[in-house]
Write a structure and sequence with these properties.
Layout (H helix, E strand, L loop, with lengths): L1 H21 L3 H5 L2 H24 L2 H23 L6 H10 L1 H8 L2 H15 L2 H12 L6 H27 L4 H29 L1
Helix pairs in contact: 1-3, 1-4, 3-4, 3-7, 3-8, 4-5, 4-7, 8-9, 9-10
Length: 204
């Protein structure tokens, strides 16, 4: 549990530091309060998600600590989200993710390792979407590079969350994990339809 507290404290410090740095820029000061909170949360969240990806390479040796770190992140992000978001699906997603802590205490290590692998794989898709969101927020010119970033982010997100994740989930030998993962798949499909609409709008 100490890991969850440590991550939460680090995220608060990172958010304060990011706000201090960003407040020096007119573009940041020009956006409304909720967008400022969301921007800071996306930056600190992306930093943690990249850390999660790094930890994923050593997951077999550190998965017990990893689980609590993710729990600390999910709780902290829900607190930040309350300042700018009223998306029920996002709150459901974060609450459902906290179930990983329950799995950690109830199931054998081989199941937990599989679950932690799911986590870092799924979290690896988020930073690119945050980059796209930031480019859109600050009205970055819709250049070829910008379009390429958005298309790559969409394809990577879709392949992992709508393709690879459901496949390895339903080939899992753990019925409990597969059943639980179905809720994540359902949310991913919902978000995929929203992203697809944006991509179609971008091509129009």
């Amino acid at each position: 549990m100490e890991s969850a507290l440590l991550v939460s404290c680090c995220l608060v410090v990172n958010a304060a530091a990011a706000t201090g740095v960003l407040s020096q820029f007119n573009a940041f000061n020009a956006v409304n309060r909720k967008k400022k909170y969301e921007l800071v949360n996306r930056i600190t969240g992306s930093m943690f998600q990249l850390y999660v990806c790094y930890r994923g390479f050593y997951i077999a040796d550190t998965f017990h600590t990893f689980i609590y770190e993710v729990a600390g992140y999910m709780i902290s992000e829900m607190v930040f989200m309350s300042m700018y978001s009223d998306s029920l699906v996002m709150y459901i997603h974060h609450i459902a993710s906290l179930y990983f802590v329950y799995i950690h205490t109830q199931y054998p290590d081989e199941v937990v390792i599989r679950v932690t692998t799911y986590i870092w794989m799924l979290e690896s898709t988020a930073p690119l979407l945050s980059v796209c969101w930031i480019l859109h927020l600050f009205k970055y010119p819709d250049t070829l590079v910008h379009k390429a970033i958005k298309m790559f982010a969409f394809l990577y997100w879709s392949v992992i969350r709508v393709g690879v994740f459901p496949y390895i989930l339903y080939t899992s030998e753990s019925a409990q994990v597969s059943l639980y993962g179905s809720s994540i798949v359902a949310m991913n499909v919902y978000w995929f339809t929203l992203l697809l609409k944006r991509v179609r709008g971008m091509r129009a």
